[in-house]
Amino acid sequence: MNNNLQKKRLAQLAGLALTTSLFSSIAAAEVSGNISLTNDYRFRGVSQTAGDFAVQGGIDWSFESGFSVGAWASNLDYDTPDYNGPDIEYDFYAAYGGEVHDNLSYDITLYRYNYSGESDLGYFEMTAGVEFSGFRVAYWYTNDFGGSDLDYHYGELNYSYEFIEHWSLNLHYGYSIGDALDDGEDFDSYSDYSVVVSTELLGLGLSLAWLGTDLSSEKKVSDGVFQNDDTVLASVSYAF
């Protein structure tokens, strides 16, 4: 057989094997999804829907190797008298995680936030987290928050406890700091926190949360775009 022809056939067989392996991995992946309705979409204490309802949903593919990928979307309201903002946020992520032992796990994730229309707000963000016996600590970082070319750091501590079967208490504390805050909002850091009670009923996930921040009174926004005042959030979700 001609050497060139033999090499070509070997390359074709290798490509076929790689493609077959890839499709087999995809077929073996665990697929899950969710859809939810909430009375406000809050991101780190700040409303993304001007205090109005949000419909959100996502889909995830998880592989036995520990890798996972997914997508998530929500409606938005960034409109002001001087700015016609995007109406949809759609995000993608790729992650890797695993267990050290039964009570200790870790994960590393890269997110890409995207926004509809001709918006230039899109950006990448990385996070690394550790979970231990109901506690989760995570650190988030981007050098281009909201397309601003400015850095943003976010640290969070969470605790989840099932106090009755199917009833959980979830506590959250987050701390934001970075040039992106100082440049756009005339302050360099703030904290957000929440207390959430969640349960399941008739196949639906239900939650009721109180959210707040330590922003000073002159920095509080209680009406319109980017509300950041203390609030109560209710949500209903369905996972499949």
Automatic annotation (TrEMBL):
Keywords: Signal. SUPFAM superfamilies: Porins. It holds the Pfam family Gcw_chp. Residues 1-29 form the signal peptide. This is TIGR02001 family outer membrane protein. It comes from Shewanella oneidensis (strain ATCC 700550 / JCM 31522 / CIP 106686 / LMG 19005 / NCIMB 14063 / MR-1).
